[in-house]
Amino acid sequence: MANEKPAVRTPATPDRPRRRDIVITALLGLLVLLVLLVGGVLAPGAWLAASLAFSALAFVYFLTAVTRVSPRSAVQMSRPVHASELESADVMLEKIAVPVLLIGPGGRIERANPAARAFLALGAEGGLLSNSLRQPRVLEAVSAALRGERGAVVEYASLAPIESHVRAFVEPLRMPVAGPMPWRAMLVLADETSSKRAERMRADFLANASHELRTPLASLSGFIDTLRGPARDDEAARDRFLSIMREQTDRMRRLIDDLLSLSRVEMNEHLPPSGEADLGAIARDVVDSLRPMADARAITLELSLPDEPARITGDRDQVYEVVENLVENAIKYSPEGAVVAIEALDNCARDVAEHAPERLAPQSARLLLAGPPFDPRQRYGVLRVRDHGAGIDRRYLPRLSERFYRVDGQKSGPTAGTGLGLAIVKHIITRHRGGFSVESAPDTGSTFSVFLPKPAEGSKAASPAQPVAAASAPEAEAE
Q1: Where is the composition biased (Low complexity) (predicted)?
Q2: Same domain, yes or no, for 426 and 313?
Q3: For the chain: N or C, fewer Cβ within 10 A?
């Protein structure tokens, strides 16, 4: 109790500008009465009575001219404010999970809670808001609040580095400070990306499902009509049609599963994972699960792993889905009896992570489909999958990660897929703030590489505020 700071009481102070206006008005009134007396409009007795009444009324208003406050504010002003209460308010602000900032004169950030520093990737408080938030409408609302104007609500969307939708609440705050700039702006940022993505996900799912399911449903309907009519008693035709119908049913099931998986990934793409996983162990599990599929086509799976665990920052289930998609594609598009090489690397620099040091062929094409901003200090865990299939022509590479895109020659037959596998891979890698690249040459094969950031030293996972940028207009290179 001896160290407790004395309470601070905020008294109600007179409103000086209002008192000044009352004095000026009273003098003008007396001057008008004097002019009326000189002009003979008022008798001396009437002038004296009017002057005394006017002066008394002005004096009463002068004494009662204080700053008007609401009853709630009056109670707060009459109650002593302890330093411990101010410290509690600071602790509450630090614990709030919503980004909150206090903007001072000139648009400089005076306070920012941890959520705001992570959301805007702020290095230190005191910088300009315009350096971290390049949204003109939000900056205009903050400038208006700093002038004491009413607050505003601004919605904005950002497509880079990751698509996001934010609602900004701006309110003016009058601070108990002397000087010509007593106003501050409180900025609260509400991330509405998840709700916006959910709305779009439902619309996209219905559109994609209705479009892609139309063909197999039409085929099933035609085969059913044939089996009920001309082929009713044809056993050979019935067996053949039932086999095709089973293939179409399996295709619809795979299509729906892939659409749901892609929608789930896109829903949380703006939220980087915070866990850790072993890339080498994931590759080993995928090879064990797909070995029966490879044995059915006499394909050999060669697995090369580092001596130490290749620790990465990521969601194990999603990384498993990435590796499974790449290895399964390599098995499907390799000829019977071929070899599929799966290699995991640890602690690689960016230039090694993007592409293998040795080319598949002298004229092979290389392309980065998605990648994070370049950081020379960041190290990565890398996985490469090499097949010996027909290869992909360079003009098709930029479209590999598009939804439902399949290279000519892969749109039908037993190896035909849904066209969503590489799109899922790209979105998962983008969410993990990693990279996805391809190298291919016709009649030689293809190598797909994914690289994921390693956990920061001294922490269990990488910072969730690390930005990422996906290649929006990649160009193939041939050296």
Answers
A1: 459-479
A2: yes
A3: N
